[in-house]
Each structure stands twice: as C-alpha cells, then as structure tokens.
Write a structure and sequence with these properties.
Blueprint: E1 15-17, E2 20-22, E3 26-31, E4 38-44, H1 47-66, H2 69-85, H3 87-98, H4 102-122, E5 129-131, E6 139-146, E7 149-153, H5 161-173, E8 176-180, H6 186-198, E9 206-208, H7 213-225, E10 229-235, H8 238-247, E11 254-258, E12 263-267, H9 273-285, E13 295-301, H10 305-317, H11 337-352, E14 356-359, E15 363-364, E16 368-369, E17 372-375, H12 382-385, E18 392-398, H13 401-409, E19 416-420, H14 424-433, E20 438-441, E21 460-461, H15 466-471, E22 474-481
Parallel strand pairs: 7-8, 7-10, 8-9, 10-11, 12-13, 12-19, 13-18, 17-18, 19-20
Antiparallel strand pairs: 1-2, 3-4, 5-6, 6-22, 11-21, 14-17, 15-16
Helix pairs in contact: 1-7, 2-4, 2-5, 2-6, 3-4, 3-6, 4-5, 9-10
The structure holds adenosine-5'-diphosphate.
Protein name: NAD-dependent succinate-semialdehyde dehydrogenase
GO molecular function, one term: oxidoreductase activity
InterPro entries: Ald_DH/histidinol_DH, Ald_DH_C, Ald_DH_CS_CYS, Ald_DH_CS_GLU, Ald_DH_N, Aldehyde_DH_dom, Aldehyde_DH_Superfamily, Succ_semiAld_DH
Amino acid sequence: LQSQLRDPSLLKADALINGQWVGGGSRFAVEDPATGQVLSEVADLSAADAEAAVNAANTAWAGWRAKTAKERAAILMRWYQLLVQHADDLARILTAEQGKPLVEARGEILYGASFVEWYAEQGKRVYGETIPTTDPNKRYLVVQQPIGVCAAITPWNFPLAMITRKVAPALAAGCTVVIKPAEQTPLSALAAAELAQRAGMPSGVLNVLSASADNSIAIGKLLCDSPLVRHLSFTGSTEVGRILMTQSGSTVKKLALELGGNAPFIVFDDADIESAVEGAMVSKYRNAGQTCVCANRFYVQEGVYEAFVTRLAEKAAALQVGHGFEPGVQQGPLIDGQALEKVERHVADAKALGARVLQGGERLGERFFQPTVLADVTPAMLCSREETFGPVAPVFRFQTEEQVIALANATEFGLASYVYTRDISRVFRVSEALEYGMVGVNTGLLATAEVPFGGVKQSGLGREGGRQGMDEYLEAKYICLGDV
Ligand code: ADP
C-alpha cells in the first residue's frame, strides 16, 4: 500500500497523543477486507493511554478555547485544504482498509473534508443573545461556550467522514477531541491526524487512539467514566450505543448517538419509476449496503410493483463486484465474515418464508455477496425487522398510503426514510407522518455537511451537520446583570 501512495508518510502505524506519535504496548493487524491480506500492524492503545490522551486534551483546551474563532478557522481551513490535496492517497488508504470502490472512497474523502470547511466557516457565527428584561434593574445575556473535552467513537463504514462530522464542529466551537476509530479502519483516521498536525493543530487538541476490539471496550469505558470528558459522540450499532449511554450515567455526560436504521423506501404508483430505481440503486448498493441510511425495506405500490422489481433486478445484475482498486468496480466486499453471515441468514430466512429471488442471493467466495433483489417479501421475514447491512433489496407490496405509513413506522428505528411520488400534497402528508429524522423525497441520497443528520426513536440522539451539529458542542451560559 505504501508504495502506491504519492506521499507514503500518510500511512501511519502509531497513535497520536498530545502531538506525539506513540507505539503503545502492543500492535494489532489491519486487513484488506477484500483479500484478508494484512496491511499494517497498528499501535494497540490501552485505557491508560486513553487517560493520558484525555489529560492532554484537557490541558490543551485552555489554549484552544482562548483562540479567536477566526484563528481556529484558519487552522481548520488548512486542514481542509490538505485533506483535499491528498484526496487520492487518502482514498487509496480508505479503500485498502474498508473495501469500498476507489471512486466511492474519493467521494467520502471530499464529503468528509466538506465538514471541516463548513464548520471552519460556521465557527465564526456562534452568536449569543440578549433577552428583553422583565426587571428594569437587570439585563439578561446568553453566551455560547465550548463544552470541553469531547470523545468520538466511530465506525468502519465511513472511516473518515464519521470522524470529521464530529470533530470539525467540536474543534470549531473551541473544544478538544479524543478520537477512537473503529479497529477495522484506523489508517484513515491516522492519516487525517497527520494532516491535522501539518495544518498546525496545537498538541493535544486532536488525539487519535487506535485500538483492537478488546482494548476499544476498555477505552470506551474509560472515556465514559472520565469526568474530564464532557461530551461523547458515537456512531455505530444500537447495542453499543445502549452500553455507552448506560456507562455515561455516572458522569451525566452529554451524548450524541447515531445508531442503527431500518430505512423504508416507498414508491407510489404515481412515481417516476426510472428515477425511483436510480434512487434505489444508490441508496441500497452504495458501500455494498453498509450504511446506516441504506434503504432496508422497499415498499412499492401494487400498480407499479412488477415494473419496479424487474427494472431494479436488471440494474442490480449489471453491477460490477470486485476489489475496490479495480477500475469499473461498483461494489466491494463486506467488512468481515460475520457481516456476510448476517446477509446470508436474512436471504435464507426470506426464501424459506416464500420470497422470490429475482437477482443474486448467493455469496461470491469468502468476502463478497451478489447484489440481490427479493420480491414478495412480508413483515414476518427477518429483513423487515433487522438492518441487513448488505447488498440485499427486499421489496414489499402495498395498497394504500395509510397502510404504507403504518408499515414504515412499525420499527423501533427512525433514521432515514425515502418517498417517491409526484403528488405534492402527498409529499407533505407522508413526510410529516413518517417517524424518521430524515426524509428523502424523490432522491436516494440526502447527507451533506449543511444539514442536520440524525435519528429519532432508537436510532439515536442529537444531530450532526448543519447549525444543529454545532450546538452539540456548545453550552449556553446565562448571565444576569443586576444593579443597572
Ligand atoms: P459495528 O457493529 O458496525 O462494527 P459497533 O457498534 O460494534 O459497530 O462499533 C462501532 C465502534 O464502537 C467501533 O469504534 C468499536 O470499536 C466501538 N465499540 C464496540 N464495542 C464497544 C464498547 N463496548 N465500548 C466502546 N466502544 C465500543
């Protein structure tokens, strides 16, 4: 991998604490999910290292918060420019450890970098307010202050973007951060940290703790228990989110949780079917179906059902599957064997309960799964309740608007949802009735740096991106001035 990079020094195997690269007590292997080949032996940090990082971040906080927003913005802008300049190398690192096709990886680098740019600008607009007084001798003021040391625990499916989406607003607000990237994908995080160093980030302001699965649990506990850590932002599974929420009770920590989804993708009879199929393809097969906003359940109205599934199956059949570095590849491997087994389990269960396999349905060797389309799917099947997190599109049939809203909402999750219709009144009725944090209308892609991304119900707490994503990292302080 190193020999394929224009700037080989971006491939870091050590962690970053207080501006120093540290090797840790032991190392763990990071593999290419497409081949199983070991890419690197990365520093495996312990809870004691995490404590050192938290202390460094806490010490660095005083200097960082004392800078003006404009000074912080200048450093963030340099970081943004370096991320963009090195997009090709960063994309190679990302594809190598995560598996997604190189074009998608490059897209993620630019998307990830866009949070740094946007929050560098937004940091200059953290306004307080004055409130009309009810007492002639007093004045009421509100100022916004950085919350303090922030911890970020991130997943493997977007190894760069899930970091910048948390870290950029935190840094712009004047907070310092300790990042614990996923054990499968620490290399992207370390490369981004190297570029932050080059951008002039002061020591201790941004720390990255690479760690194996076992040490990640211990580090997670330390970060939750530490009274110095004032905010914890996590993206990952609902199960781990629950653990972190429980652990954070002892320190009454502010939490942002971006957890699992079970996104419905609804196609009404009056939709533009070609556009709906297009949207379905990006929403479902991007990142091999491993995104938390991936359409998990397709609901198609009976009048267009056969036309939709036939076209979707044709398009899915045409997807090129292979190693992300190969030109033309549109779908890479799944992250690991367990992920592959889950997809197989969902397909086997659906078949046993009467689903028709229109396309795919089988694994391709040890690490890949065919782009799959299942028709005649029913609510009794596993894939209607659980997030498949793989390239499987289960398609349900529905009759009425009322019925599909009830079906779509019948889940404990509430992250993304999608609706295809050309009836403007229905757009409003359905968007308002869906119990989801986000609704894509006539589009299968909705995430961007400027908007609040997040879920309701057991999909999580808080919003990332946009003006709301900055509020996470600020505390409103009320100042009451008397004797006026
Ligand atoms: P996935 O199922 O997609 O791998 P996880 O929720 O297991 O997602 O992992 C997301 C992140 O949470 C990773 O960085 C992982 O190391 C971390 N993690 C997993 N278990 C724990 C835990 N008990 N405490 C803290 N972090 C954890």
